[in-house]
Design a protein that fits this description.
single chain, four-stranded antiparallel sheet, 11 strands
């Protein structure tokens, strides 16, 4: 399944955009983040414990450390790779989604909810 995020190509470094991820287990959420010259998309779920990284405020990026931060447990993830660099889940990796920038939009491929 492909999800279109209109205008997401204009995100600036550290800015994020949240999107719904359909699931047969109920609605999940993902987020896209601009980091340097790239844009990346991840499932909004800490690898230490299955809770949202942002505690619901749609703010994932911690500017002082230039990383994604889990507000529940303090885990620190690299925005380009999704790898946990510090915290209770070191070396674990956020679930990522392929992205394509086309025009001003970002297209995110997520698993089909039937699978």
């Amino acid at each position: 399944m492909i999800i279109r995020l209109p205008g997401a190509a204009s995100l600036q470094h550290g800015e994020t955009r949240v999107f719904d991820v359909p699931s047969r287990y109920g609605g999940l959420q993902g987020f896209a983040i601009r980091f340097g010259a790239g844009t990346f998309a991840y499932l909004n779920q800490c690898r230490h414990w299955s809770v949202p990284l942002d505690i619901g405020d749609e703010d994932f990026y911690h500017e002082a450390i230039d990383r994604i931060r889990c507000k529940n447990h303090g885990a620190i993830y690299h925005p380009e790779t999704g790898v946990c660099e510090a915290g209770p889940c070191v070396h674990a990796r956020l679930d990522s989604f392929p992205v394509i920038l086309q025009g001003g939009d970002l297209w995110v491929t997520v698993p089909d909810p039937a699978t």
